[in-house]
Write a structure and sequence with these properties.
The protein is of the alpha+beta class. The protein is built from 13 helices and 14 strands. A 6-stranded mixed beta sheet has the order 1-3-4-2-7-8, sandwiched between helices. A 6-stranded antiparallel beta sheet has the order 11-10-9-14-13-12. A two-stranded antiparallel sheet has the order 5-6.
Length: about 375
Amino acid sequence: MRSGEAGGSDQNMYTKEQLAVHEVFRKQLEHTEVRNLLDPLTGLVARPGMVALARDWIAQGKPFAYAILDLDNFKFINDTYGHRTGDEVLVELAGSLQEYLADDGIAGRFGGDEFLILVPGLKTYDERKGYFQAMYNSQLVIRRNIRLDDCQPFVTGTMGCAGFPENAQDYNALFTLMDKALYRGKIKGRNCLIVYLEEKHKHIEIQRIARQGMFTTMNSLLRAFEMVQGCRNRLQSVTPFLMDTLRVSDLYYMGTDHVLHSVRDGALSVPVQDIENLNWMNDHLYYTNKVDELQERCPGFYGAMKDMEVEALMALRIMLDAREYGILLLAEPRTQRIWQEDECALMFFLAKLMAYRLKLDGETLS
């Protein structure tokens, strides 16, 4: 395990000597060049090689941890800085991952912005948790700024991990459990590590918004919204749907008086007049997973969020024809959640529904 400064080198790719310590690679290298086993961009082991190595260890009965690392919001990096910068981030992170693992294990690229990690000898949940949590806490691989020539994007990642033979006895079952753990991390809000534990994760069903389709999701939200009359009743109707779909704990709202209310806790009533000082995106949306950035611009709102132990926040103005009717908020305690584009889109849709209904019915949220 490496312990120096984070950052890859110009020569990140695995060498023939490094791969040849594994029998499955040694046999392949008798008939092919090492570059044919590697991902051409990052120099890590290509996906087929990682699968072959995992299957070989299973055949040998060799205990190991199998992990998948998915970078958070990598599309934002590509869209903001360009795909060339995105490639540079992948190369830099791959080098850091390879250096961190050193002789402990081996890293590969699964595809896109996902990486595979194999670490032999981690037999128990506690060993797997301890090893990968140390990697997260070190901030040598992820949870750090990637220093490039013209920018320094901050990169986080979500990781799922399972172990052979404790969790599964064949490759397909092991990969499924690792994928379940990754999915659990994503619905928790990303930027976290989940190590598979049967009593906690056995019954997880992978049902992403993307799989059921945004149209279906929005249509379900619309049906819940239209089931009842009155805007506060409508918010109560859609909250269980949002809690299940977005894995959030509550829905918050305020009218033009800027007094914060909770759908689930009817007693909550907190004045936050300076919320208008948020750095709104396109005058409608604000989100963060670091509420400390609110302290200077919105000290009153920041104090309310800290009292509620909120770390991840999304706020959307309820607006129509340049008129503001209030604000919807998702405020998640004790989690550095990474808000996704489809989640923002769903909440934007709800805010527009609210604005239209408030205008038609002549209601207010104040």
